[in-house]
Design brief:
CATH superfamily of the largest domain: Immunoglobulins
Distance between the termini: 6 Å
Low-confidence stretches: 4-14
Strand content: 25-35%
Number of helices: 6
Helix content: 10-25%
Number of strands: 29
Shape: elongated
Largest sheet: 5 strands, antiparallel
Structural class: mainly beta
Mean pLDDT: 94
CATH topology of the largest domain: Immunoglobulin-like
Length: 566
């Protein structure tokens, strides 16, 4: 039986925190403000070019042998874009280029008028590996901000282009940002610095030192041609992000495009836009893990053993930065799955998206245990799979446990095997052809033992993590409330009054007591013990969410019988 509270709590994905509104710029002149906007590198080499015409991530024809990095010893040039973004002349000042703390070059920057920009170049013979290139300006104490007088850039970092509409640049001039200046370039560099901090902070048992990769801005282009595609962009870069204003509605006197840029600057200039950090994660190839969510109603077409809609759904109990996985760190950190996915692609250029979902153990077995943890033979297992995020009504495969309580999940054939340039192989597996977006990455296992049934979700992410731990033959232990005791199951009924559920069940002569279980929305597949050793045949439960209840008889020797049917 299912009980609904008077006002069910709605499930909502946690929102990213927002900074306080940024302060408006004072009218009086503030002084000079030298800033290093970005450091670019030439020549650039392309990221991977992908062709999805087969619904698979094939390399574009002719790109299979493309180079993606400079060769060791190859001459490259770093170009730093400097600007005086203040409103007074910036005096001449020394500058220093360093590599891993050692001085490469020094010089003197001439005085810059307000609004003037200049480029500094540094030739270098390419070295493989991770090196930190730093440009530092001596600057003046009277500058609006000194935080923008130094820029660190990892030579092996993924590099992105940033396209920004002039409206955003103008809007950020009017608001003080989190580094103390009034410039979009400083603000966006701070966002990338925060992204890199979160990469370093992705510490898990299999990543004790965090993620090694870093991301840098290779160019900031101020243009009205910001485009409509935020994912592809120029192949010379690992990704692109565009700051596009809303459309200006010509039928109104207001300029909605300008107003949208102003709103954005007001909301985010003083802090971190975590939604942007999330989107930059996509540029690195990470999927939205909420693609594995299943709506209990519209997203689940499966019926239970009684022919009723199952109404069980899947939502991540704690959301990471990419929208899912169970992570203790919080909503602004990369969860373990996202972090390990990035680690699996460390050292490779970008261009692929979600191809790491192909990483699955060669053999996956399920061991089913009864309510005492003993292996249970003869359990029928049917697997239902999501297609475009909807759990389909028909099972994709069925199997049965043997005498050891273990069943092998059959590997379904894929129409074409594929190994990506980043080393991930699509092979026969229980999910079939894996969708790199994650839209078919959820299995719901229906376990049936006689008239008893149970359900278990099996997200592809659990299997990815097993593969990344080196497990080629995986055994999943599924403990159930299935009973082998010679006890009948009670018939349970309920009534609700306000926020109370009144449960009653038929007395059984064989029962010395009863155990009461509850499963909460949306995880009606997961029962927890609510009360044990009940000697009456009634119970009252306070409702806080939609819940499903079941009761089991307990014999005098302590054996528990099967759960009451739905």
């Amino acid at each position: 039986p299912v009980a609904l509270p008077p006002s069910p709590a709605l499930h909502a994905t946690p929102a990213f925190p927002r900074p306080a509104l940024a302060a408006s710029r004072p009218r009086a002149p503030l002084g000079p403000d030298l800033s290093i906007h970005f450091i670019s590198r030439s020549p650039r080499y392309p990221r991977y070019c992908l062709d999805y015409s087969r619904d698979l991530p094939d390399l574009c024809a002719g790109s299979e042998n493309d180079r993606h990095f400079p060769a060791p010893g190859e001459p490259v040039t770093f170009t730093a874009r400097l600007a005086n973004q203040g409103d007074e002349v910036a005096a001449a000042t020394p500058f220093t280029w360093t590599l891993d703390g050692g001085v490469l070059a020094t010089g003197h920057l001439a005085a810059l008028a307000a609004g003037e920009t200049v480029d500094l170049t540094l030739p270098w013979l390419w070295q493989s590996g991770s090196h930190t290139l730093t440009l530092a300006l001596a600057g003046e104490d009277r500058e609006i901000s000194r935080a923008n007088n130094r820029l660190d850039s990892r030579t092996d970092a993924h590099y992105l282009e940033v396209l920004v509409h002039p409206y955003f640049v103008q809007a950020f001039v009017q608001r003080q940002n989190l580094v103390g200046s009034y410039a979009f370039a400083d603000w966006i560099q701070a966002q990338f610095a925060q992204l890199n901090q979160r990469l370093a902070a992705a510490v898990y048992p299999d990543l004790p030192a965090g993620l090694p990769d870093r991301v840098r801005i290779d160019t900031i282009l101020v243009t009205e041609a910001v485009g409509g595609d935020t994912v592809t962009g120029d192949l010379a870069f690992d990704g692109r992000w565009s700051f596009r204003p809303d459309k200006d509605l010509k039928r109104t006197p207001e300029n909605e495009a300008w107003e949208s840029a102003q709103r954005y600057a007001a909301h985010f200039a003083a802090g971190i836009d975590w939604g942007l950090i999330h989107e930059l994660g996509h540029q690195l190839g990470l999927i939205d893990l909420y693609q594995l969510n299943v709506s209990p109603s519209a997203g689940n077409l499966v019926h239970d053993g009684a022919g009723l809609p199952l109404l069980s759904g899947f939502y991540w109990p704690q959301s990471g930065l990419m929208g899912g996985d169970v992570s203790p760190a919080g909503a602004t950190y990369f969860s373990e799955h996202s972090a390990l996915a990035l680690a699996a692609n460390s050292g490779f250029r970008r261009g692929y998206f979600g191809e790491y979902l192909y990483d699955l153990p060669a053999k996956i077995r399920v061991r089913v245990g009864d309510n005492a943890g003993r292996p249970l033979a003869g359990v029928h297992i049917a697997a239902f799979q999501t297609q475009r995020n909807v759990l389909q009504a028909a099972p994709v495969f069925q199997t049965i446990t043997g005498g050891d309580g273990v069943a092998l999940l059959p590997n379904r054939p894929v129409s074409a095997t594929l190994t990506t340039a980043t080393g991930h192989t699509l092979h026969d597996n229980p999910f079939g052809r894996v969708d790199v977006v994650g839209r078919n990455g959820q299995l719901l296992l229906h376990l049936r033992y006689g008239q008893q049934e149970a359900w278990r979700w099996l997200p592809i992410t659990d299997l990815n993590k097993a593969a990344w731990r080196g497990e080629t033959a995986l055994r999943l232990d599924v403990d159930t409330l299935f009973s082998t005791a010679a006890l009948p199951s009670p018939r349970l009924s309920l009534r609700t009054a306000g926020d109370q559920a009144r449960l009653t069940w038929q007395p059984l002569a064989e029962a010395a007591a009863y155990n009461l279980y509850q499963a909460d929305w949306p995880r009606f597949d997961s029962f927890r013990l609510l009360a044990a050793g009940i000697t009456t045949t009634t119970a009252s439960v306070a409702l806080t969410t939609t819940a499903r209840f079941a009761v089991a008889a307990v014999a005098g020797d302590g054996q528990e019988g099967p759960l009451s049917p739905p």
